Each structure stands twice: as C-alpha cells, then as structure tokens.
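Dock adenine; give full complex structure.
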Amino acid sequence: MRIDIVSIFPDYLAALGLSLVGKARDAGLLDVRVHDLRKYATDKHRTVDDTPYGGGPGMVMMPEPWGAVLDDIRKTSTAAPLLIIPTPSGNRFDQPMAVELSSADHLVIACGRYEGIDARIAEHYAAREDWAGVREVSIGDYVLAGGEAAALVMVEAVARLIPGVLGNAESAADDSFSKVDGPALEGPVFTKPPTWRDLDVPDVLLSGDHGRIAAWRKEQAQRRTHERRPDLS
Ligand code: ADE
C-alpha cells in the first residue's frame, strides 16, 4: 500500500519512521511519502492560507497549493488514490473504517491547519474520475490543532491491518472492536512474575485449563465493556 501525507509540518510525521509503521516500510509492505505543502505556494512568503469569505475568526487554507500538490501526487501513482481529509467535522474513524481503508492501494492524507481547507478541494477531488473519492474523517469528538496527529493515528491503525505487518503471534483478529459477536473491549492481561507488590495474577490463568481461561477472559471482556463502554455492550 502507498500512503502520501501532505502537511505544512512534515517533521511532525517523522514518527512514521519508527516502530510498527517504520518496520512495515523497511519490509516494503508500506510506501509512505511525506510532502511539504509550502513547496507548492507561489509567493515569496510561501503563503498557504487566507481570510475566510463571509468573515469570522481564523484563516482558511487556499485551494491552489492543495490542487498543485495533489495533482503532482496523482501523476506518480498507478492506482486512483482515495483522498482523506482529517477534520473534526468528518465521519468518525473507527475499526471498521480502518479495515476498509487497509484494502486500498493508495491513500492520500491532506492535513489541514487553521480553520481547515477551502471546501472546493473536497468537492473537486470527489468529482475527479482519476481519484477513488474523498473521505472527510474525524478521529474523535475533540478539536486538534491540525490533521497531523489524526494522520498518525489513522496510518498506524491501517498499517497494522496490512497482511504481513503483524506477526501471527499478534494477530489483529483478537483486537478490541474486532470480534464479530464478542465483547468490544479486551480484558486485562498479565505476565510474570505471578506476584508483584502483593498483587497475584488470577489463579485461573496459571491453571493450564484452556477452556476455563477462555471463559474467564470472555467474562472479563464483557464486564469491562459493560462498565467502560455501555454504548457498545
Ligand atoms: N483536525 C482537528 N481536529 C480533528 C479531529 N478530531 N479529527 C481529525 N482531524 C482533526
């Protein structure tokens, strides 16, 4: 899979060289390219924003630099890309959306700052037949300073679902939110030592009885889901 990310703070995306995403890139499973929007500004101050039509606070990102960078990215891509615009006004990003996006060939994430990107960018690329559509996506009901942190969240959630990125031992099938009928959240986990600061690992987990262990885990997951996320139980 290929993912292009456009930002006025390309250094913000340096974390994508680390950990699971960094390894997936090294293994050739994921091709991540970060672009500096300011390189596509045309004036000497590298301006990418302007005041909003109709008035109001803040600044709006101008369509011209966005159009230029997105068209440039399209020229280097073999498959029609899906454009993702992180915004608090978007559809909520969740595990089913991560699963859906993980089967795309090419994602382009347009990280806005200020009050957002001129709405004609979403409208134009949604109408383009050489693009696979536009998704405006929110990672939660809070307002960030820009789309970069949301892009990091989405890339990590999507990358770990690409076949070959996780080893068998850490299959995504057991994740919270992934089980078809089971509880949404995973229960507590423990490792050695069996006693730490007077706290014991539950006996059942040391019993070797796989049936009892599975039943205990399911009950713990149900309890946790009920307590913490009643909306999901
Ligand atoms: N940009 C600012 N806030 C955001 C959010 N909650 N989700 C995605 N992008 C954002």
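Observed: The pocket of adenine is lined by residues 86-88, 138-140, 142-144, 147, 150 (CB under 6 Å).
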